Amino acid sequence: MSENICPQCESELSWKDQGYFCDYCQQKVTKTAFCPDCSEQLEKLQACGSASYFCNHCNELKSKSRVKSVFNVVAD
User: Fold this and answer.
1) pLDDT tens digits for 13-64?
2) What is the distance between the alpha carbons of residues 10 and 25, in angstroms, rounded to a whole number?
3) How many Cβ atoms sit within 10 Å of the Cβ of residue 73?
4) Which SUPFAM superfamilies match (predicted)?
5) What is the CA 34 to chain-centroid distance, rounded?
6) How far apart are CA 45 and CA 24, in angstroms?
7) Cβ(65)–Cβ(73) under 8 Å?
8) CA 58, 66, 30, 49 torsion: positive or negative?
9) CATH: 2.10.290.10, 3.40.50.10070, 3.40.50.300, 1.10.357.10. Which one for 13-73?
């Protein structure tokens, strides 16, 4: 099962127009990553096809497997 689940209806999200989209709710959804150590929002660094996360508060890279991801429906 996918880890990309709609926070409103719990159906699987699809990728549409450079972002997540819930086909059931017909809503755009954002994904935000938070530091597993200090809970601050992380900066996503993307290069050469891979993604890493950096915490400006801890001043260090964070493992993608430890990152806490939160999905939110975008308000119109």
Assistant:
1) 999 988 999 999 999 999 999 999 999 999 999 888 788 999 999 999 998 8
2) 10
3) 16
4) YfgJ-like
5) 9
6) 30
7) no
8) positive
9) 2.10.290.10
